[in-house]
């Protein structure tokens, strides 16, 4: 029987793969058989070791995604490493916390640039390749509960992740007939650098935990199954969804 979740022979580009959710997604895709091109600003040694332990080919591309400048180089290096790109995971993202009333233009622009602008133009560049080579592909955006909810003290983050959900739907509509599946994963509250400030705040941390039906924060590895599903042929008829992986948070 063929395995619809098998990624053997595929190449996946994962942004922000040096740590946290991006690293866990890269490892899950590697375990499913995909070669990994890890894109990010920092060293990828640990991710490389974990992916190679899973038997995957691995290549890293050093790039700062706060501007559009490295996009051409990312695409060229990724294609050189894998011949073609089958899967793109737009995971790199940042967050800035401050009251909306005093939020600065810099904290607005920095977050929007990484989370939305570069994500869109990198996706455009890679989708052009996927369309040109006629084999289609899988694009997975890492959204957030703030794609559905307002939150507090993170105005640019909420705007970027709500925007990313809309963009996921738009790109799905434009590219579905070209063989590209565009979907998103909305992680709940996961133990990573992104949530360190929340977890350090005892009051916020226990309020959050009390609302999660499964009764624990997510571990990055909890995202692996959703990522492999959306990267594989098992999801060939799935377009434009924002899939929550949140321990039941949104069901509450
Ligand atoms: P993290 O801070 O550990 O990881 C963020 C990643 O993005 C890092 O690899 C970092 O190097 C990379 N990155 C940030 N700015 C970059 C830049 N300018 N150039 C290149 N790389 C850059 O946090 P995480 O929780 O693993 O976050 C990963 C994604 O998941 C983000 O998009 C985040 O918004 C999203 N997310 C996280 C949670 C959570 O609970 N942790 C929940 C929902 C969504």
From TrEMBL:
<dbReference type="GO" id="GO:0047001">
    <property type="term" value="F:2-dehydro-3-deoxy-D-gluconate 5-dehydrogenase activity"/>
</dbReference>
<protein>
    <submittedName>
        <fullName>2-dehydro-3-deoxy-D-gluconate 5-dehydrogenase KduD</fullName>
        <ecNumber>1.1.1.127</ecNumber>
    </submittedName>
</protein>
<dbReference type="InterPro" id="IPR020904">
    <property type="entry name" value="Sc_DH/Rdtase_CS"/>
</dbReference>
<dbReference type="InterPro" id="IPR011286">
    <property type="entry name" value="2-deoxy-D-gluc_3_DH"/>
</dbReference>
<keyword id="KW-0560">Oxidoreductase</keyword>
<dbReference type="Pfam" id="PF13561">
    <property type="entry name" value="adh_short_C2"/>
</dbReference>
<dbReference type="InterPro" id="IPR002347">
    <property type="entry name" value="SDR_fam"/>
</dbReference>
<dbReference type="InterPro" id="IPR036291">
    <property type="entry name" value="NAD(P)-bd_dom_sf"/>
</dbReference>
<comment type="similarity">
    <text>Belongs to the short-chain dehydrogenases/reductases (SDR) family.</text>
</comment>
